Amino acid sequence: MTAIADRIVLNGLPEDDYHRHPALSSTGARKLLSATPAHFRYWADHPQPRKRTFDLGHATHKKVLGVGSDLVLIDAADYRTKAARQARDAAYDAGKVPLLPDEMAKVDAMTAAVLANPYAAALFDRGRPEQSLFWTDEDTGAPLRARLDWLPEAHTGRRMVIPDLKTCRSASRGHLSKAIYEYGYFIQAPYYMAAVRALGLAEDVSFVFVFVESEPPHLTVVRQLDVDSARAGHDAMRRAVELFADCLLTDTWPGYGDDIEEISLPYYAARQLEGAQQ
Fold first, then answer.
1. Strand, coil or helix: what is 96?
2. pTM here?
3. Gap between the Cα atoms of 192 and 26, Å rounded
């Protein structure tokens, strides 16, 4: 694709063009830390097909933010008929999101729930949706990128609160805490804040998650990382950026290593083996 300036905000950049750009995204940073550079390189070079499990999330983003892939209502109860499957596949081929009637109703209910939450509604009130930010990391020279759900207008004193909309099975504290860690959302938060600071869009930046449950009553909550979690996310982000920069510099993307190494049984094996001998 056409080269992009090393510090820029792009409005209206097609999603596929954004994902094809070689700069490191927060999703890529999470991939680097959860696997190996070799896994990351393969993932980056082999775009994954769209997954139906993400359709509700994409559709809710479209309804709340007003941008994104068009939604297509599939006039069928399910996808057991050939006609329904053909209509679904045609929608995917056209870059659209197919939804069955009950799914469309669920998306409408989730959208209403988000906008009924006074804090969530205010967060998505003034600003621009789906903004693509590109910048160069000052410490490593690595090219980085982020695609914000919503880029708010900076308030008095150059203060900005970045909201990110996510669907979830449960908005309970325990479930969200686990999801934020397992999906690496705690890394996404400092990544987006770093993008805003690097481009000089605001001086005082914070980040909040807007979670909406995918099942009735579609409760919506706004959550912010505590100090320790935010610090852990920032440290993890820096490790990922530095690892990416090193791999990029040498064009080497290592896996698990080629040496012969000893390997042990898992920690619980001894107890199980002792029990089997009794």
1. coil
2. 0.90
3. 8
